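Supplementary Note 2. Why include the ligand at all?

Several targets in our set were suspected to adopt different conformations when bound, so apo predictions alone were not considered sufficient. For every target with a known small-molecule partner we therefore ran a joint prediction. The input for pyridoxal-5'-phosphate is given below.
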Amino acid sequence: MEYIPLNSPNLSGNERKYLLECIETGWVSSEGPFIEKFEHSYAKYVGRTHAIAVSSGTAAIDIAVSSLKIGEGDEVIVPSFSIISCINQILRVGAIPIFVDADQKTWNMNVDQVGELITAKTRAIMVVHTYGLPTDMDPIISLAEKYELQIIEDAAEAHGLVYRNKLCGSFGTISTMSFYANKHLTTGEGGMITTDDKGLAERCRSLRNLCFQPDARFIHEELGWNYRMTSMQAALGLAQLERTSEILQIKKLMGNSYNMAFQNLNSFQLPIKTTDYAENQYWVYGLVSKLPSQLSGSQARKLLESNGVGTRPFFYPLCDQPVLSRYGIKSEGSCPVARYLYENGFYLPSGTAITTSQIQQVIERVNNVFT
Ligand SMILES: *Cc1c(COP(=O)(O)O)cnc(C)c1O
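The joint prediction is reproduced in token form.
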């Protein structure tokens, strides 16, 4: 039986050609023409003034949080159903993540809960577009305007996602992307920051590059990181960006095929196909058990793995992360929906190189195991 991997990247366009160009021209560091080209093309694609390429999506969030000068005692509202990258830098600077529970249907943060979490200490709302469906941005934007808060938009999973006619990655005061191998576009490892604010963009460029100063390179007023992207990554990124519509189509075809085929699978909740503000782009295709006492997510995964279907569990709620106790934060148990999703959710093979025959095999095996 052929094992169907959870994810394999689709690198069948100009990726090889551009990468060879790096080797032939010697541009392998973060200098050279590909970085700027990738940044410009990316900014243009999302419709923003500035794009800053970095070494990962996590690096992009670290820099974004730091560029907004979020510091000790500041509060940042963060969805609990997300990856640790969202809170790394918040915790490191002594700021406080305030967790919002997930919405049971969309798996995004429950936007109705955000307003009541705002206090005099709130500086920013972090939004994460989760698993291929955008967060409902309008209520967040109104709150941010009303209370003068920054929006940090984590669009790592949201390349090409459209919220009411506007691309994700264009909503934040500052927005971040990831190009990890399982994202819609990949550079292997990599990330991007986008913003329309020139001052913020300059700060991000400086933070990415150790806060070297243009006129006094080795004299430092501030600490930054070496979070630079290499030219080789940017070469891959440019080739991927050219193929955005093709790649998004593969994902949609995958998601729609799964959705159709699993309609009668009564034990699982499926991803929502459309809401009044967006269509699902299926970054990953998730299933959530509706009968937790009979079939948990990990039990379902075991059955599938033994039938040659690659799976991965859903996010562990950030509010329950053991590491929080080291920072004096007691939020355990505060987000029951995120906890439910973690315990009962998992996703199926969803990579951009997935073939129609692999999709068919996943469908057959899932249906065989669970009906
Ligand atoms: C993948 C991901 C990240 C982290 O990106 P890396 O490039 O792996 O560091 C951050 N946020 C979300 C929502 C992600 O899915």
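The CA atoms of residues 55 and 229 lie 5 Å apart. The two ends are 20 Å apart (CA to CA). Comparable summaries for the other entries are listed in the accompanying table.
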